[in-house]
């Protein structure tokens, strides 16, 4: 996607985009979806507020991607409510005060060796912070769309990092996309949790 193109015009239709045309029957037939949930315990002495704040550090979050080669921020949409729709259970920070939900946009470049498309993959990612974490929609070439919800919640005696993933793409690509998620999530979670623990230990030692 060229950064000179209009933001909305450069995107494929998404089921969560307001006003998007309904997919034609053939497209619906060729498009598959898959849901995954990945959970990792967070050891003490990490506090929930600090863990959530780390998830909402978009620069750190983006650099947890093992394939990342670079990214840049894009201009925000002028009318986010007309351009986007987030899941009903996500209440964006600022929504209650009437500020509108804060969508942060990034153009992300990954190097992903694969047999189908060019290894240098240019995607657009939408970040929405909310009380328990961050919601991210990734739009990649060939109509691949991933929506991920990252939260920190109370588990059995300790906090947990939970990642819910919804994949929508051509059925022929599903195996590649799903395999990439399943192959990388543990490394990503380990990096995030390690930073949470490191920050917590630094906080304990502070005067």
TrEMBL record:
Pfam families: DUF7053. PANTHER family: DUF3074 DOMAIN-CONTAINING PROTEIN (PTHR38117:SF1), NACHT AND WD40 DOMAIN PROTEIN (PTHR38117). This is DUF7053 domain-containing protein. InterPro entries: DUF7053 (IPR055481). Residues 33-196 form the DUF7053 domain. The lineage of its organism: Eukaryota, Fungi, Dikarya, Ascomycota, Pezizomycotina.
């Amino acid at each position: 996607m060229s950064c000179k193109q209009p933001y909305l015009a450069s995107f494929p239709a998404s089921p969560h985009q307001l006003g998007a045309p309904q997919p034609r029957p053939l497209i619906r037939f060729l498009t598959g979806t898959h849901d995954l949930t990945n959970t990792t315990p967070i050891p003490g002495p990490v506090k929930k507020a600090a863990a959530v704040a780390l998830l909402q550090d978009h620069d750190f979050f983006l650099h947890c991607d093992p394939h990342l080669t670079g990214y840049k921020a894009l201009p925000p949409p002028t009318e986010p409510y007309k351009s986007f729709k987030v899941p009903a259970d996500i209440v964006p920070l600022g929504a209650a005060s009437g500020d509108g939900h804060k969508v942060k946009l990034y153009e992300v470049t990954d190097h992903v060796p694969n047999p189908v498309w060019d290894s240098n993959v240019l995607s657009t990612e939408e970040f929405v912070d909310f009380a328990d974490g961050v919601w991210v929609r990734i739009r990649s070439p060939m109509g691949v769309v991933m929506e991920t919800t990252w939260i920190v919640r109370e588990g059995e005696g300790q906090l947990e990092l939970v990642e819910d993933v919804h994949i929508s793409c051509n059925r022929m690509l599903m195996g590649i996309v799903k395999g990439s998620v399943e192959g990388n999530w543990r490394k990503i979670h380990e990096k995030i949790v390690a930073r949470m623990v490191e920050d917590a230990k630094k906080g304990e030692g502070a005067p």
